[in-house]
Fold this sequence. Notes:
The chain is an alpha/beta fold. The protein contains 9 helices and 11 strands. It has helices at residues 13-24, 36-43, 57-62, 79-92, 104-112, 121-134, 164-167, 169-173, 208-219, and strands spanning 5-9, 28-33, 48-51, 70-73, 96-100, 117-119, 138-143, 148-154, 175-182, 185-188, 201-207. Strands 3-2-1-4-5-6 form a 6-stranded parallel sheet, with helices on both faces. Strands 7-8-11-9-10 form a 5-stranded antiparallel sheet. A hairpin with a 4-residue loop joins strand 7 and strand 8.
Amino acid sequence: MKAQQFVVIGLGRFGSSMALELMDMGYEVLGIDRDEEIVEEIGGQLTHAVTADATDENAVRSLGLRNFDCGIVAIGDDIERSILASILLQEIGVKTVVAKATSILHGRALSKLGVDRVIFPERDMGIRVAHQLVTPNLLDYIELSQDYSIVELTVPSCMNGKCLADINTRAKYGCSIIALNRKDEVIVAPTAHDYLHEGDIMVLIGSNEGIGRFEDEVVNR
């Protein structure tokens, strides 16, 4: 079941942007921060916002957070508070706990504590930007594991008018085009008979090695 209620602890740049995006997506969001000015500034844009210390067990329990589907610990300036808040959310019964990590050691500690998902915003953004800088047609990059990724590539002029059967990425490169995004439509799971047009966005999934060869030999030639 898709989560309906989120609590975001820490309303700095990362926490507030996530909270606002969840609101735009139609979910209920409770924001929590120790800074009263921050809470007042963003409060009117969220379902609820309160000034509280998320490491205070009594304060956290009084907010009824156990009824929330997902708790996001977005505290980035204090590792101890981040860890304590994550523990509290788990102890009071929040179904899914997600936490921001500021370092590998911080992330390792959160994982050992049983946090469901650890996020490294700065590291992940650095990886994406690095890939975009060296690959002109790359729009986005998501690392699935050390060896596999999902990428968005702009269809270059040399591929205009070719159908997927002509390119045959799965057989030649071990990667698959799983979606095509163009101005007037989105094609999910395109067939071998779908054609590419210059400027289309193709979404590929596969090994990093295979995607890299496809970029070098076809997209960037």
